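Handout, section B. The chain below has 686 residues.
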Amino acid sequence: MKRNPFNRISGLYFLLLLTCLSCKKDLEKPQWDTQILAPFAYTEMGIENIVKNGSAQTNPDHSIDLFIRDTLYTLQLDSIVSVVTPAFDINKTLDSIKFGTAPIVTRITLGQIARQMAANSNPSTAAAGNFILSSHNTTQPFIPAISNITGGPIPINISTVLDEAEIKTGFLDITVTNGLPIAIQRAEIEIKNAQTPFGVVAQPVLTNIATGASKTQSENIAGKHVDGTMNANILDMDFAGGTGVHIDTNDAVTVTLTVREVTVSSAVAIFPAQNVVNDKSVNYLLDMGSVKLKEMKMKSGYVKIEVSSTIPDSIFFTYSIPTAIKDGVPFKTDTKVPPAGGTSTFIYDMTGYTMGLRGDPGINTDYNGLYNELLGRIKYTGRKIPLSLTDFIQVKISLENAKPSYVQGYLGDTTININGSIPLTVFNNITGGTLQFESADVAVVVDNSFGLPGSASISSIVAHNGSNSASATSSTTALGPGIDGNPPVITSSRVAVTNATALVNVLPKTVDYAGSLQINPSGAFNDNQFAYSAYPVKAYLEFKMPLSLIANQLQLTDTIAISSAPQLNSALKKGKLNLITDNGFPFDAKVMAYFLDGSGTLLDSLVTTQYVERATKGADGKVTQSKRSVISYVLSAGTISNIQKATSVIFKASFSTDTGSYSKIYSDYRIKFKLAGDIQYTVNGQ
């Protein structure tokens, strides 16, 4: 292995120093001056010290294009489509309450009729009644016609299912079946409530009912009051005579009462299972302007259902949105609302549902319409409860906090004005002097991820750097639509900006802008347009400048931490600091150094009028070799002490290109700095 001669000499010097110190240990303490060379700060600067990291794009020949891209504006889905639905309110009184009972059958025997006749004040009628009673189970050769027979009351009791009812609509069918041995020529029967106010419910008249035959008459009982206990009265019954008639007093006339198509205004009854709410409606999105949506997929949101009822029985609700689909299943929910009193609230998460907005699915031609179905029903309980058409069910259904992740339809013909200001940090390392680019290209780039055509125009762009500013405008540019997919395929369009070079040469810190985005500028209707919330339309401001420039006292700045200066004692005397520079840029530079303590307070500085020499260029104008320069700064003890306290140093390099001549910058150009202290101090022996 090859030995380093510097290490060998250093070792001999160290042994000699130890020998001298050991020989003097019994003499007077020695004292001498010595000198050290102490490098303690190093840095280098390149293109990254002119522009922010990532902004420089290196070409194959190492030439550099400065590329800046900052977001001007983001068009979110909810900027063009805001999903607001009115509350879907159903305030329903019971417009119909169905009621029905099994047919009511009453038998009026021949014996009952005969006893009623025997008690009649008319002697002939009484005689006929007694004759029938005495002839039971006999065959009579001849029976004369019998007229004007009356009877009753005969009880009709339905109180097990009904206390009372006000009939709104309906019919009572009265069927008389003749089980007597002689024909009925005429029968007039009165059906009447047994309680106050003893109203007549029906009074049918039936004629010519042969033995063994039946006849039915329907009575409209709308508006009638019906009690659970009623009486049937025979107002008039006429019989035809006959020959060879066998008399059996157990034979009977059967009266059958059947109610049908009955709804009640109010009732205390046992009600059959029935729907009390059956509502199908379309709820339209609000404030949609020219937007016409066919469907949307929910990113978030929920359906809120609030139900209150005065019905003294549980209500069973089924709420469905047949066109809201998730995992192939339509949205449907069943809820139970307790008997009258209070409000019940139900909340259902709609995240992930795709909602059809074509209105009634049976028609499917609408837009922005959410179809709802609400069914409310009571079940058969076997208990009598009071119900009235003044009873009501109040249902409020709302789609709340709805935010779509995807929409499809015609997305309107809106013009959106955009304006604002964006900061640019790319030139922040340039703290002084001026920089002038030879050329520049500036454009507004619009990435359209929405499936709709548009146009973009920029009416004003103003670049600011302190009191300096420059302005530009652009033309209107058409925006091609994105292509559907998840994610969508983005279509990019460039809006060229005028006066680009002047805009860039301000070295802007901020850029103000104003313009507009127009959606569907032609107005052509297309309901297959789409948009995703996760993929907004974005407008960027892009700068592209080849790094061919004129610089005048352009300052580059870099701050670095420094290693500890030598731990010098109070015998510090004097010294100098050497700034060793290897300049790979094709222009002279003036370098300054500022020393700071840990709090950022300036402790001292090194300033000189001496220039760092420029690098050597070849015939093609590119640097072929860097140039080394050494600048020496004479230090006082006080300056050394200040440097000793420093924790960081700021290097500022200012340079200028040749007057009126553009210089091209390449990625491999570097300028390197090293600070080395050449310091003399006194060593006191021990």
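Note. The chain has four domains: 37-52+552-684, 88-97+272-411, 104-270, 414-546. Compare this with the example in section A.
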